[in-house]
Write a structure and sequence with these properties.
The protein is mostly helical and about 425 residues long. The chain has 17 helices and no strands.
C-alpha cells in the first residue's frame, strides 16, 4: 500500500493552510530585520562595532525572551501574547527606522534589544498548533518537514528583500517595512480560529524547571545547541573562503545555495513522510549533517567545490530540524509545549552565536579550514548527545520516572508510516 503523503493530505484539516500560510508571512520579517538592524546601525554611525553591538543586543535579548514568552503563552494563551509582542516589536522597528544620523549609539543598541525582547514567539506558537491541525496523526512528521521547508523560504528571501528595500528607499525604510509586515502578519495569524481557540493545557504539572524538567527536552536542547554551532560556524567559514579566494561577493550566492539545498531536502523529507520519528531516525540525519558540513574543510580552495558541498550539506538541515521539533509534543511535560519549542530556538541561537565567535577566532589564527574543523566537532557533539540520550527520546522503551520529576520517554504520537 502506498503511504507516501501528498501535500493535499498533509494540509487537508480545516484551517491548516491558513495557519501555515499566515505564519510564513508573519515570520518573514524575522529574517529581514536581523540583517536590517545591523545595516541601519552601520549606515547611521559608520561604525561596524556599533552595528555589531546592535545586532548582538537583538540576538541576546531574543534568546533570553523566547522561552519566557513561550512560558507566558502556555499560561495565558496565544492571542494576547502574540498581538502585544508584535505591536511592541513594530513600534521599536519603526522608531529605529526613523532615527536621524545624529542619534546616540545607545539608542540604537537599546532599540535592538527592545526588538529582541518583544519579538512574538511565532515559531513556537505555530509548531504548538501543528499536532492539532494535522488531519491524520500519522502525517505529523511530514507536516513538520513541510513547515520547516516553508520556513527556509523566509531565510532565502528575507535578506534580499531587506537589502532591496534599503537600496530603493533606505536602511531605515527596510526596518519600517519589517515592522509593518510583522504586525500585519502576526495579526493575521492570531485571528486564525486554531490560534484563537488554542488554550493552555490544564494538565500542567507542578515543579520547577518548566519544560526542561523532561530529560528528553534537555537532550533535544543539547542537540539544537550543537546544530546551531554548525550553522553559525559554517556561515563564517564560507565567508572566509570567499574572502581568501579574493571573491567576497560570492558569499551571498553560496549561502543562497545552502538555503536552496535545505529547501530541496525538506521537500524530499515531506514526500517521504518526515523521515525521523525517533532517535534511530534522527541520529543518521545528524551524522549526515555533521559529515557534509565538516567536508567543507576540503573545499576551501575552490568556490565551485564549496557551492556543491554546501548545497548537499544544506539538504540535511530541514529534515533534521523537522525531526527535532516533531519530538517535542511527546517530550515536553504537559502544559509546557510552547516554552519547549522556544527553548530549542534559544539553544540554536546561542549555538550559532558561539559558533560564529569561535570560528572567527580560529580563522584569524589558522584560516578557513579551522572553522570547518570546528563545524565537524560541533556536529559530532550533536550526534553524541543524541546517541547518549537515545533511550530518553520519544520512541524509546518507557523508563520509570526519576525522583526529580523528569518524564519518561514516551512513544511518539505519530505512528510509523512506511
Amino acid at each position: 500500500m502506498n503511504t507516501t503523503p501528498k501535500l493535499s493530505s498533509i494540509l487537508s484539516a480545516p484551517g491548516a493552510k491558513a495557519v501555515v500560510g499566515s505564519s510564513i508571512l508573519a515570520r518573514l520579517p524575522l529574517a529581514m530585520f536581523s540583517l536590517a538592524l545591523l545595516v541601519h546601525a552601520r549606515d547611521l554611525t559608520g561604525s561596524y562595532a556599533i552595528a555589531g553591538l546592535t545586532s548582538g543586543a537583538y540576538a541576546v535579548a531574543s534568546a533570553i525572551s523566547s522561552p519566557l514568552l513561550g512560558g507566558l503563552v502556555d499560561r495565558r494563551g496565544q492571542t494576547a501574547v502574540l498581538i502585544c509582542g508584535a505591536a511592541v516589536t513594530a513600534a521599536s522597528l519603526i522608531a529605529d527606522g526613523m532615527l536621524s544620523a545624529d542619534a546616540p549609539a545607545s539608542v540604537l543598541i537599546a532599540l535592538g534589544a527592545a526588538t529582541g525582547l518583544s519579538s512574538p514567539p511565532l515559531d513556537a506558537c505555530v509548531r504548538t498548533l501543528l499536532p492539532a491541525i494535522a488531519a491524520d496523526p500519522g502525517r505529523l512528521p511530514a507536516l513538520f518537514a513541510f513547515e520547516s521547508t516553508l520556513l527556509e523560504v523566509t531565510f532565502v528571501t528575507g535578506p534580499p528583500i531587506a537589502l532591496g528595500v534599503g537600496a530603493v528607499w533606505s536602511s531605515g525604510g527596510a526596518l519600517i517595512v519589517s515592522g509593518v509586515i510583522i504586525l500585519l502578519g502576526t495579526l493575521l495569524f492570531a485571528v486564525q480560529p486554531a490560534s484563537r481557540r488554542w488554550r493552555p493545557d490544564t494538565r500542567r504539572t507542578g515543579g520547577r524547571g518548566g519544560s526542561l524538567r523532561s530529560p528528553a527536552m534537555r537532550i533535544l536542547v543539547a542537540i539544537s545547541l550543537g546544530t546551531g554551532m554548525v550553522y553559525g560556524a559554517t556561515e563564517v567559514g564560507v565567508t572566509a573562503i570567499t574572502h581568501g579566494l579574493g571573491d567576497s561577493t560570492a558569499a551571498g550566492p553560496l549561502l543562497g545555495l545552502w538555503g536552496a539545498g535545505s529547501l530541496v531536502g525538506g521537500l524530499v523529507a515531506t514526500r517521504l513522510g518526515g523521515v525521523a520519528r525517533d532517535a534511530r531516525g534522527l541520529i543518521p540525519l545528524l551524522g549526515a549533517l555533521a559529515l557534509l558540513h565538516g567536508a567543507l574543510i576540503f573545499t576551501t580552495g575552490s568556490v565551485l567545490a564549496t557551492g556543491l558541498v554546501l548545497t548537499l550539506a544544506g539538504a540535511t538541515i530541514a529534515p533534521t530540524e523537522a525531526g527535532i521539533y516533531a519530538m517535542v509534543d511527546a517530550a515536553a511535560p504537559a502544559g509546557t509545549h510552547t516554552e519547549a519549542y522556544s527553548w530549542l530556538l534559544t539553544a540554536s541561537l546561542v549555538g550559532a552565536s558561539l559558533g560564529m565567535a569561535a570560528a572567527g577566532a580560529l580563522i584569524q589564527g589558522a584560516g578557513a579550514p579551522a572553522a570547518f574543523a570546528l563545524v565537524g566537532v560541533a556536529g559530532c557533539l550533536a550526534v553524541l548527545a543524541a546517541m547518549l540520550g537515545a533511550g530518553r527520546l520519544p520512541g524509546a522503551a518507557p523508563e520509570s520516572d526519576g525522583p526529580a520529576g523528569g518524564l519518561r520517554a514516551q512513544p511518539s504520537p505519530a505512528p510509523s508510516v512506511r
